[in-house]
Amino acid sequence: MKAEIIAVGTEILLGDILNTNAQYLSKELAQLGIEVYFQTVVGDNPKRLKDTIFQAFSRADLIITTGGLGPTEDDLTKEITAEVMGFPLVEDLHTKELMEAYLKEYEKNHPQRRITKNNYKQTMVPKGSIVLDNHNGTAPGLIMEKKGKTAILLPGPPNEMVPMFEESVYPYLRKKQPEIIYSRMVKICGIGESQVAEEIQDLIEKQTNPTIAPYAKTGEVHLRITAKAEDEKKCKEMIKPIVRELKKRF
Question: Which of 62, 137, 150, 206 has the fewest CB atoms lying closer than 10 Å?
Fold first, then answer.
């Protein structure tokens, strides 16, 4: 399965916030054995967002978006994605109940806060989608499936996105992905990346699964050995002879 991560928010493009969501999601997807070939950041612009989603679906089976699910007019991820995939929006009473309960509890501790009409924008969901409860905010997550393509929409704040991914998205994807990816890092000190690469050129040329990837670090060279198999135990068995050979050579 090939995936693309789309972070939505002009504040990311302006450098006001750091896009930690993409890093987190990439690591989690790698552990699931899902290949991420592209990460994209797009601002809160309907045309550019629509173009980005179309492009992502042209090269990936799965797109995961973060951000743009809030109550304001520039929060358009849900609306644009539903339009691209051909899903009409309908009110979800379960989401409405959860949102009202969350906001009423919030009001008790913050008297200046009140439920405004625009909050109800978040109760509209694509018809036939899987709705993911948000226990740390008001915007539900969403999963839309159509013709072999899947879109997973997650809220932008990490304290909402991470728990939702762990509780709902990870189990959903685990059922769809029979293999996992596991990596082990070998660290070498005292010689440069070019010399290390020369010493293992034959291994790199023959590699299929596992693979070896060199990384230059300050005073070190790291070799990441990555295997794909049905479980972690099998991956470790595949990696072990490669590590043994690297230790022998260096």
Answer: 206
Q: Are 85 and 142 in contact (CB under 8 A)?
A: no
Q: Record the tokens describing residue 49, joined without a space.
A: 């967002």
pTM for the full model? 0.81
Tokens of residue 19, six digits: 């896009």
DSSP 8-state class, residue 129: P
| Separation of first and last alpha carbons in the chain | 36
- CB-CB contact of 235 with 180 (8 Å): yes
* CA-based torsion, 101, 102, 106, 111: positive or negative: negative
- The DSSP code sequence of 5-73 is EEEE-HHHHTTSS--HHHHHHHHHHHHTT-EEEEEEEE-S-HHHHHHHHHHHHHH-SEEEEES--SSST
